Amino acid sequence: MALKVGSIVEGTVVNITNFGAFVELEGNKTGLVHISEVSNTFVKDIHDFLKEKDKVKVKIISIEEDGKISLSMKQAQEGVRKRSSRPIEIDWDQDRNKNLQMSFEDRLSKFMKDSEEKFVDIKKNQESKRGGGYSRRGSAY
Fold first, then answer.
1. Model confidence pTM above 0.90
2. 5-44, pLDDT tens digit by residue?
3. DSSP-derived secondary structure for 24-77
4. Which of 14, 80, 110, 129 is the most exposed place for a label (fewest CB within 10 A)?
5. Long-range interactions of 26-31: CB distance < 8 A, separation 24+
6. Residues whose CB is less than 8 angstroms from the CB of residue 132 and which lie 6 or more positions away in sequence, other chains included
């Protein structure tokens, strides 16, 4: 079977560097899994995730004209999850319908309350950046 972009295949880790892992695929072809494509979590040291001779599933991201093959372990895992999961149904009109049932005064009151809360949060954030609510002259606001 010929390798093609988008395929998920199995390979063997043959070499690990500080920037990724080289994986041998079928037909004695070798591709690179860049360190950013190893896991969905931050990878500081690739040796925490892989060792030589590990069997891994990878997705072929690209095949360059010069023969370089880019691989991804995390996209291979996402592909498996996507096929097995069902779509989530979301009722987008739920909040809108709730608001339509409220009177104008109730909606206005809710809007004012939400706005005041946001304003207080913004003001606290600005004061914390200025040094706790004190001006440069040392007096409180």
1. no
2. 888 999 999 999 999 999 999 888 999 999 999 988 888 8
3. E-GGG-EEEEEGGGS-SS--S-GGGT--TT-EEEEEEEEE-TTS-EEEEHHHHH
4. 129
5. 26/1, 27/3, 29/3, 29/67, 29/69, 30/69, 31/58, 31/60, 31/68, 31/69, 31/70, 31/71
6. none
